[in-house]
DNA sequence: CCAGAATGGAATGCTATGTTCCGGTCGTTA
DNA sequence: TAACGACCGGAACATAGCATTCCATTCTGG
């Protein structure tokens, strides 16, 4: 149970969590900040990842997995289409998932697996969105990609420490969700973002 | 009309505009990017500003002046409290003023004049806000500092080129403003940001 | 025609940061 | 129990990016 092997396994976790925390707070943070936060040396990082880009890819991949898990939960665990939609959005915001994925997009070359995961995430989001739309609880004229933009505009809010930031985000997310749940209101101005527009920020190479 | 003197005067403008454009797009941009965009050499910059920080201060100061001008226009030129409020917010977003001020905050030491201007801007914002609130057109529980957070969450939206970005921002600003104009709705959750919280991001030294 | 303002852009010095390397620690196993 | 090696901390190294300086050159106002 104890021993070098066990510490190494624990470090796997500790390092991932530290990396997540650090890069969510500052996407341009140096590798050394991750090591410091994890309470390990830099070697412990390079033993596990080929380089910074490799770590970033891994974080992003994990982030997508969480997103997918939330989306699946929303599709299977909730009956009311609006509650499923709003709950999903709220949970993604709470876990700060979008901060991570957005901030890191473009800083590394995504692999084939990331593409697939991304496509899957997209598809699930569409299902959640269309279920709500078909139920007639959404403001007219909304598109799936609007959801991504909502994530983005909420994720950029920061105020003081983590707890206060969560509070503030909840505040404005409520505001925005109220604005989305208006079947009788006028459509929003301008063409909605297209999925292609939203995806363009990734570095495809 | 022509000549070295005239070119220099023209360059004053060209450089300021280039700097504004460059730093709005990327707050961490190098000085050389400004020179390139302005089509001048680096010397032309250093002849006018003592250093990067000096230029940033100047940009920020100009930004505040524009903000103040918009605020005063809203207070004197418009009768309806809601129209004054919404129009003001819209114009500030359109000129991308907040992007600049927010992005640059904390990267330089503000001088006494900036403090004064900032206080003035704040005061005008309060007047616009309270006029709308007292007219009963605002959602209950809103605070002045909520306006700053709205600027922030809209300013972080980017999509493709400048024109498309403006469209998208207009789209979500409409969404948010709709959410603010709901006198009968429930108050938003959580304590609103305080002015002090919002100002904390400045580097006071 | 010339003193000097204005400029372009290369040269300089520095900082931040990714990556490598080495000496040390301590389970593990023969 | 003795040596082996996985694992680790962190200093050392190499480099890229950037603010700032410097100087040769251009052009003009008197």
Automatic annotation (TrEMBL), chains A, B:
DNA-binding region per Swiss-Prot/TrEMBL record: 30-49
HTH tetR-type domain span: 9-67
Signal peptide feature range: none
InterPro entries: Homeodomain-like_sf, HTH-type_TetR-like_transc_reg, HTH_TetR, Tet_transcr_reg_TetR-rel_C_sf, TetR_SbtR-like_C
SUPFAM superfamilies (alphabetical): Homeodomain-like, Tetracyclin repressor-like, C-terminal domain
Keyword terms of this UniProt record: DNA-binding, Transcription, Transcription regulation
Positions in coiled-coil regions: none
Name of the protein this chain belongs to: TetR/AcrR family transcriptional regulator
Organism: Streptosporangium oxazolinicum
Superkingdom of the source species: Bacteria
Pfam families: TetR_C_43, TetR_N
């Amino acid at each position: 149970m104890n021993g070098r092997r066990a510490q190494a396994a624990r470090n796997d976790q500790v390092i991932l969590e530290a990396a997540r925390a650090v890069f969510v707070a500052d996407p341009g943070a140096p590798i050394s900040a991750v090591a410091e936060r994890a309470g390990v040396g830099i070697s412990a990082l390079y033993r596990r990842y080929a380089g910074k880009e490799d770590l970033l890819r891994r974080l992003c991949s994990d982030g997508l997995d969480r997103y997918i898990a939330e989306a699946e939960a929303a599709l299977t665990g909730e009956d009311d289409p609006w509650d499923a939609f709003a709950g999903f959005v709220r949970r993604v915001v709470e876990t700060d998932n979008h901060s991570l994925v957005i901030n890191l997009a473009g800083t590394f070359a995504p692999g084939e697996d990331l593409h697939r995961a991304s496509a899957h995430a997209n598809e699930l989001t569409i299902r959640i969105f269309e279920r709500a739309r078909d139920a007639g609880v959404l403001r007219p004229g909304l598109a799936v990609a609007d959801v991504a933009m909502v994530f983005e505009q909420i994720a950029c809010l920061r105020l003081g420490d983590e707890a206060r930031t969560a509070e503030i985000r909840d505040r404005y997310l409520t505001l925005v969700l109220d604005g989305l749940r208006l079947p009788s209101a006028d459509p929003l101005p301008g063409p909605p973002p297209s999925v292609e527009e939203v995806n363009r920020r990734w570095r495809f190479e």
